[in-house]
Amino acid sequence: MKRPIFRPARLLLPLLCLTTGCSGQSNVMNPQGPDAALIANLSRILFISGAVVFVAVMGIALFALWRAHGRGNDNELDPVVGRRLVVWGGIGLPILVLLGFLVISVDTDRRSLASQFADSEDVLTIEITGRQFWWDVRYRADSPHLEFRTANEIHVPVGEPVRLELRSADVIHSFWVPNLQGKMDLIPGRVNTLFIQADEPGVMLGYCAEFCGDAHAHMQMIVVAQSPAEFEEWRGSQLRRRERPTDPALAEGFDVFMAKSCAFCHAIRGTLAGGRVGPDLTHFGGRRTIASAILPNTRGHLMGWLADPQPIKPGNHMPAVPLEGQDLQLLADYLLSLH
Amino acid sequence: MTSTLVPETDSEGKADPLERTWSSPGGFLGWFTHVNHKSIGRRFIITSFIFLLLGGVEALLMRSQLAVPGAGILDQEAYRQFFTMHGITMMFFFAVPIMEGIGIYFIPLMIGTRDMAFPRLNAFGYYVYLIAGVVLYASFFLGLAPHGGWFNYPPLANREFSPGINIDIYATMITFIEISALVAAVELIVTIFKLRAPGMSLHRMPVFVWSILVMSFMIVFAMPPLMVSSVMMAVDRTVGGHFFNPDMMGDVVLWQHIFWFFGHPEVYIIFVPALGFVSMIVATFCRRPLFGQTAVIVALVATGFISFGLWVHHMFATGLPRLGLSFFTAASMLIAIPTGVQFFCWIATFWGSRPVFRTPFLFILGFFFVFLIGGITGVQLGSVPFNTQVHDTFFVVAHMHYVLIGGALFPLFGAFYYWFPKIGGRMLSERLGRWNVGLMFVGMNVTFWPQHHLGLMGMPRRIWTYGEGMGWAGLNLLSTIGAFILAAGVMVFIVNVFWSLRNGAPAGANPWGADTLEWATDSPPPAYNFQHLPTVSGPHPLWEDGWADRPKVVGLRPTHREVLVTDLMDAEPQSRMILPGPTYIPFLAAAAVATGFIGVMFVKLIFVFALLLTYLALVAWNWPRMAHQLESEDGREHRLARGQGDGGMNRELEGEGQPGSGDRPWPTQGPGGGA
Question: Which of A246, A321, B60, B316 would you label with B501, given CA atoms 20 to 30 Å apart?
């Protein structure tokens, strides 16, 4: 906390995204879901009419000045002209534009997923809990044994609305996937609801948009949109529980995991590791990214992360656990085997 | 005897007793005794300008950090402190105080009186401001500055997640500096209501005075909620309260409501005086009265009211009920109407005039361009669906700087160029002025236009670094280059001030040929402002025929700091008031209060001790004035307004044998008929 103000950053940071298979960079104006498309459309109308208003008002102002300059010493203003200017330009124009804006923005709201599905029971519901500085993702199901947790990677079936129940375990975060939907805060003590829907299969990047502390800049997530069949397959695979691996090398890695402090914070379902402080790692090897979507999940990045998470994501709450080279490799191999 | 009642005017127009009565002591220790509004106003302006530079340097460092992906200039903790300090500095320590400072300097001149209504309170406000700023920056240089953002949302700001002293400094210093804002506001209101020159009824008040009046009322209503919430925050942090602790049924959204109930009007507190500058400068440089002055004033007042009904548009992403949100959408858009009215009143003023394109007017044209963009994006942000996409992204950063730089900083720099001759006695260089406008205009747009795109490309606010693959690098670099151009513009201004203070052309009383009373006296004005207080019969006194022949107020004793109290609506003279002179008491009182606010962060009992000190300071403050201070030369007593109706004073003045004073509603003296 009491570090000097000027300190050379310890590392040049992440690459991302392109390597993790994001379908393009995030952009509000490149919607990949119905709500984002509605908003992009609304934005386009707002921008164009804004530009028209700007040109009109600046045009009138410049015309007034130009006219002023050109005309000899005529220094009288016809009050009728002035009054017309103020009434039509100052009151009429804004009212017209504002009413237009109000109507289309209420209409956009009315056609949103939230308006259509707010009361619908049979919508896939995912509970997302914001934590400093990662996303705890829990897939709800009718029966407890069909529920599971994952982290920082949200799989959704294409073409179906998904209800997100947003909670926070510590401070306020905000869930934002620009290509899918506007943002919604995750507020401790409250539950907010957000609907998303993806039109096409793909991977989209999302961010924490509310300042949440030191590692706020590195709190991201990805949304993986899959065909319903692939999604169901993935969902089924996530239910698989783990036990001590039979492969001796992996078993050694598992022992490192259990012996070092990893298991205090992380859970691997089926084993004694049941920590809830950090992300659930039951299917870690299948995830595309690490460190809340700031690095691709490769062996090299993982080993760097395990050796010392702080330079990669300064201010995050994962301590650097002292690991010898051998242990580090065993642990990384074990984690990557958790498909 | 008469000679003591009418200021002695010798051939050079010098008034020795007046000069002596109103002068402030020199020297280092003397500095702590000043109460004159020009002295205090100048301090406010200079101090807040220094805070502008500090806030600007913070911005440049942040921009440098964001110029390229993964830069290593600031780390995450430093960046937190920098964006928090940038916000706090610009909002609380620059924008509001400088508007108040200009008000404190110019309101008494513009309404034709000699000082503010409560000169000691004025000085007290300044010391509170100075101490708060020094403490805040001391914490910054120790690396302990507030780091929860200027909005300081709990629970991140609660002790659980921010255990250090950083947020304590926020909670106490924000409460503390608001005292300064509040006393200045109260005082500006009373001064404007009660000390106007005879004849300056409310509808004859210059637009700038109206804008300061609206600003002051807004401060009076907006700052107390902030003080309440920051005290609640301090209670949570220091003695374990649970107002904002969700684990104990506290509500973190409550903070957001209170903060933005203050925070939104805050923007307009900065913006409304700037609108006043624009109206003054437009009228002066178009050489004609502002078109639709009444409409402009009504629009200012309406802006003040509506601005209190918009706060929720900062909270569209918190999941509040949708129906409530559409109310705030409507209100957020509604505020465009009064601004639209003012825009078109200015345009109508341009219409057919022959504007003089000097630096202040060029800044106003820059304001037109830049603020219009910010205003339009502001209306767009009122739309809930659109807002949820761009909220907390660089789009909002761009919007907000277009509004604040376009809407407040450009008019402010215009006002610097406009009024500098009055304060400094010399004109600022026109050539440097043009460079100043040009660099600031280009720099501003190059910095902030790309940020709209960055926001749409998904760049969230308050991130201290970003990766290569995000595609944000090019625009960020452009934005950083713009920031340095903008800074170069500000540097040109500083050079201009220092150069012109030595080499500028002498300004004379009214270099721009303007219409308001501050231009009726010397540049810089004497300590007593006016040899004789003016009287007014229209909204544009200096442009009226026969201004030189207007009757002047006589009968104020040059041996006392006397001002004329007039009534609220029509500025009819009511009584004379004796103002206090130089004194250490405001400084001591500010120091006593500061002891409590600073001490409570370390040892809670200091608060009690400081309460005692403050009590003593207030006793000294309210100590009855010595009889000899209140007695007039002829042995009669002039109480403050109390117990003396107009009649009494008029009779008394008649008694002094002023020719013609009996048949005028106020004591006056013809121009030729000096004593």
Answer: B60
